[in-house]
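INFO batch 0412 | record 1 of 1 | parsing
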Amino acid sequence: MNQEHTRGLEDDWIQFMILTTKLELPPLPPDTLDRPRLSSNREQLYQFKVTLLTAPAGSGKSTLLGSWVQHEQAACVCLDDKDQDPLQFWLYVIHALDRVRPGFCRDILPHFLRGYSIQPRSALVLLLNHLALSEKPVLLILDDYHAVTQAEIHEQMEYFIENMPPSTHLVLSSRTSPPFRLEKLRLRGELGQIMLQDLAFTAEEGIEFCQGAMKLNITSADARNWVLQTEGWVAGLKLLALSHIGSAEEDKSTRSTSPLAQPLREEPHHFGDRSVSEYLLEEVFYQQSQELQHFLLRTSVVHRMNSDLSRVLTGMEDAPQLLRHLEKEHLFLIALDREANWFRYHHMFSSFLRRELARYGTEQVNALHAKAAQWYEQQGYSAEALDHYILGQHMQDAARLLEELFAHFIMGEWWTLRKYFDVLPQEVIKARPKLYMSYLFLVSRERPYGQMMKELDELENMIQVHLHDQLPPEISRYLLQVVCVMRAYMAYLNRDLQGLSDYLISYIDQGYPDDIAFQYMDYDRRESMRLRSFHGVNGSLQRGEMCFGTITNRWFSENSYVTSYYGTGYAEVKLEQNHLSEATRYADRALEVALQIKVAALLVPAYVLRARIELAQGRPNEGIKWLQQLSVLLSAKDLEYWQPIIQAHQHRLQLEIQPAETAQLMINDSIVERVNPKISCDQVFSSLVRVRARILLGEYELSLIELERLRKLAEERVWLTEQVECGLLEAQILQRQGHKVESMVPLSRAIVIGSSEGYIRSFVNEGEPVKRLLQHYLHLRRTHSIQDSGIKMAYVKQLLAAFAKQNREGVSSVRLSPMEQRVFGYIAEGLTSRQIAAEFGISTGTVNTHIRRVFAKLGASSRAHAVQIAEQQGWL
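INFO prediction complete | emitting tokens
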């Protein structure tokens, strides 16, 4: 799957998940009454961290919010009962913030999407950190928060509120109090509250509303009495006004008798057990014309509509005119955008209309849902179409559409996807082979390994034996391929490395499905080093060789992502074992395939690996060139995600070239300091590179504190490479402080892990300081000054032999040509340029040219300096 395909799908997915009409509050209706005592509260919003606006439906919450945003720039999200997927919830928040801080999406979205799938809390930290960058106040409004019922969202909201930067101010509008703790905010004076009694109309406001906004010809005494009857309830007062208008203007004998709008209420009117709102809504509804009742009932099945959709649902050509009439008559129709293209009914009125519609039978309601679904699907609103197919019990169409949408949902909206599968009957799911496989893929994380493998065995047997003659060959082949993919995925999730390698071998033997949905499973970990981060390997060379080696050697000739993905991991194993030629061979193949497929998750590890091989061969400058090439290849979006770890690898190489300058630059870089090392192996690596910089600057105590924290984290997660590196760095610090005996403790920890797995390169890369520590350790062991701790002396000698080999290969590691090597030999013997020229029969100028090249490659400034470098490295 190429990079452009992946990026295009991701962009489509975001568009698929975000309805822009939910990112702004509805415009204020013409009959809105300006109430200064409430609208002036907007000045207090910035005095509180959170303002809680709680009151029942129809109390004027949204109208008050609308009056605030007329004067304040605010990020708004209008929530509804479909907003139960945590990722989608936060995507709406991010897109809302982008409207008041242009570029916010561009800055955060790629990182947030990838981070949330791995660790949601870390993605929220990222969001909070980006909010903290703004010095200007940011007002975030979440309207109708009561619609959210998902516990995970509430938990994350509580964390978000607790950690919001001072510049962010949140307004929560809800019919009920949110189900999370706000006591701390209240005690600290950071919580503002507006409740029903604050929103209720006063007598004076009620008079002004009736006589001014609604233009009713009633006395002030009557208006005051209405306020008393409704206790200042805004919607109740409006219903009384509308009922009064209808009674005055319309003769009851002319009311509708249409089949879809028959008056099915009992006479005479009395409240009985019904609420005032129910009574008044009936009064208003039945005062409308037959045509308008027909329109209201049929359009009530959708959450939002425009002129064309209302025409389809009602079969009325004048539907657009009726929409405008409803808007003009203030009949609980709310525009969702400034251009008044999209509308919805007031929630209270919408619920009433649906109850009325339900009285005419399920068949008619389902038929309307089908019309809505077909229209939404034709217009490209697939998620809404799917909802209406299910609401209308059109399960076959729902299954068809869900099968098409699976690749969109699988990228992150797991909760929504699971909700759909729970609603669809199992027999409908199983009747569509691809959909059934998608379902199994979805639930694979939830079911026990053994149970899932048993189900896959049964399914494979059914396909091969019972359905063999009933399915087309291509469908049968596809199903068997996906069964194999599922087995590999289950093995991966359960850290069954042997099973993973076995299934991937079977996978290539029978072919693999060309299905974008199933290709994402292999990109679960987007990190730059496979050996450290792969499930079940975590730095174990033995497990890595068993898994990566088996897969890589079988897939080596295939131009598949598997070849690059696992080939990189196998090359890392060979690099750590100090088999540099083998490491280079597999790294080059992994890179070759990655360049063909052009997926960042393959390109980055392959290029980083080539840079690390250059470091192992003493050529950090060449390693930097590899990373520079990588940065050019990545798209802007991919580079934004990968830049922190690429920069960390660059710093690691630059510390070998310009130690002091690079170290100071890193410590002064505040952006690098914000990395949270608890998120991933990559970020722990970044922290360890920063520790190296502090060591070079003499900040030993700070470095020891950070190393202890990182070591504990690595031990908790059983990350072996990080434990080895922490031990070696701690030992070097203690050695620099003159604590030679104490330095043996962390060194021994590193040796214990290294000896059990065969680590070589991590030790050799540390250079002379670790070599001296190992020599001292060997001396202490020989003199029985320390216990063996189960460490074999042969392993320590093997490490020292690797250092000696590195020294012997030093000249070739800087790639001196044969002529340059011979010239350098004569320089070491003390010959002059004239004497060397005489030996070769060439001019003195040619000799001096060779000498200058040797100096450049060695980093030497003179002949004596060049010889000194060679002696230090053991080349002479």
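INFO post-check: Residues 713-808 form one domain.
INFO record closed
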